[in-house]
Amino acid sequence: MATSIDVIDAKGKKVDSVELPAEIFDVQTNVPLIHQVVVAQRAAARQGTHNTLRRGEVSGSGRKPFKQKGTGRARQGSIRAPQMKGGGIVHGPHPRDYSQRTPKKMIAAALRGALSDRARGERIHVIDALSVDNKPSTKTVSALLTSIAPSKNVLVVLQREDAISLKSIRNLDAVHVLSYDQLNAYDVVVSDDIVFSKGAYDAFVAFNTKSSNKEEVSA
């Protein structure tokens, strides 16, 4: 069953209302699934370029550093041995790919579950426009976000071409900005409140509803 929320303008006045489709904002939150998708996303962001030199890769002679007997010291075979200063590293990290294969349906389900959790906690907000008279105003938007989303971490979702709104919020601390087609489970999980612009909300719902209908038809 879809629920509705108010759409407010940059001054905090209600101008409209929108429905939150149940297939996106009221599904069961599968915590293990969200955890798996978030871990995979974070792993894919790792560069994996770390590298240490093995015993055979460090510079140095291959001869014994000193004779086997008569020195009173422990016998040594090479200055490139791991126990020697400047020697090779044992079991050190080497370049690798950390990415994990995650099916698209799992990624989509994790996002819906995270959004549903925020919706049930009344942490989803829709703003008609994050500008006043089509002019950027960081002060106005800051006051609005403080009033509707006083939490520490706020995620604002915009359309790609909405440059005016972006100028209004890009200098605000603890506010993260994404376009609607970049929305993902990780950014939803680490954010306390999700604020959509009206255009971004309509585009996001239309895209995900269309995707759901395609899956039903193909099934």
Automatic annotation (TrEMBL):
Assigned GO CC terms: ribosome
Keyword Ribosomal protein (UniProt): yes
UniProt keyword annotation of rRNA-binding present: yes
Keywords: Ribonucleoprotein, Ribosomal protein, RNA-binding, rRNA-binding
Disordered: annotated span: 48-100
Gene3D superfamilies: 3.40.1370.10
Highest taxon listed in the record's lineage: Bacteria
NCBIfam families referenced in this protein's UniProt entry, alphabetically: rplD_bact
PANTHER family: 50S RIBOSOMAL PROTEIN L4 (PTHR10746), LARGE RIBOSOMAL SUBUNIT PROTEIN UL4M (PTHR10746:SF6)
Family that this chain belongs to: Belongs to the universal ribosomal protein uL4 family.
Quaternary assembly: Part of the 50S ribosomal subunit.
Role, per record: Forms part of the polypeptide exit tunnel.
Protein name, per record: Large ribosomal subunit protein uL4
UniProt source species: Rhodoglobus aureus
